[in-house]
Prior knowledge:
57% helix; mainly alpha; Arc Repressor Mutant, subunit A; homodimer; 140 residues
Amino acid sequence: xxxxxxxxxxxxxxxxxxxxxxxxxxxxxxxxxxxxxxxxxxxxxxxxxxxxxxxxxxxxxxxxxxxxxxxxxxxxxxxxxxxxxxxxxxxxxxxxxxxxxxxxxxxxxxxxxxxxxxxxxxxxxxxxxxxxxxxxxxxx
Amino acid sequence: xxxxxxxxxxxxxxxxxxxxxxxxxxxxxxxxxxxxxxxxxxxxxxxxxxxxxxxxxxxxxxxxxxxxxxxxxxxxxxxxxxxxxxxxxxxxxxxxxxxxxxxxxxxxxxxxxxxxxxxxxxxxxxxxxxxxxxxxxxxx
DNA sequence: AGTAATTTCTATCTTTATGGTAGAAAATAC
DNA sequence: GTATTTTCTACCATAAAGATAGAAATTACT
Lengths: 140, 140
């Protein structure tokens, strides 16, 4: 049970953009992000596109174009990014769509998954990019 | 991010076996488990095999053969079953094998995943089958 | 205005994992 | 010994993941 490689790459890219956020007027080039964060350059294109559709970043084409965050780092969490790429975190099929299981409320396992999901979602929602940057600074 | 269908089926099968556990001398037939728990019968064979290799159940062939738990329900948790089928719960590649990521301790995201994993593992390890059965009884 | 440079975007391919099936192998009761 | 009932394993589709190259678009500069 893992997030996809794409989601991990997306997180790295967003972390890079969060670091660049203070430079308000600049836009980062995809190629630069790819190099810096060790992401296959041509693979990043697809990821950038998805993040843009999800409204997490703003893109602009052409010379001097590039990518930047659509919102402040404190308004973007790990959960936002992961769900934008991998879809909702369900842990098990029955969590987000109870109708797939005919046992319904009679299944004691169902509840465990629901609680586990809540716990996980809370943790990821709480991890906003401003906090991540602070934590990194504190370490160095 | 979900457990596989196989893992979910395995949990259902184990729940059934936990219910049957008091009948010490009987063994449940795979076909019976499949019917009762709504699992594709021929698919269950592969799952049973994996659970047996993992040491969670005992199998015996031939007439009057079948399957039963290898340990008491209170000594088997959801975590045991899920990891036996799907492998370790990592959430992200870097959690179980930090060497795949060259950023190492310099990555603030790494730590979040580690904590999230710990939290999730604790929850699943705590959910033993005796507790699950009790919870179900309490409901009815 | 034209063109070259730089960018995002999209159609395509390969590989891997998942979900599922059927038939072989094994063991026991009679 | 044989028939029955079981586990076990080799196989096959389908779908998703990972990755790539080239098309489309936009802008700066001459």
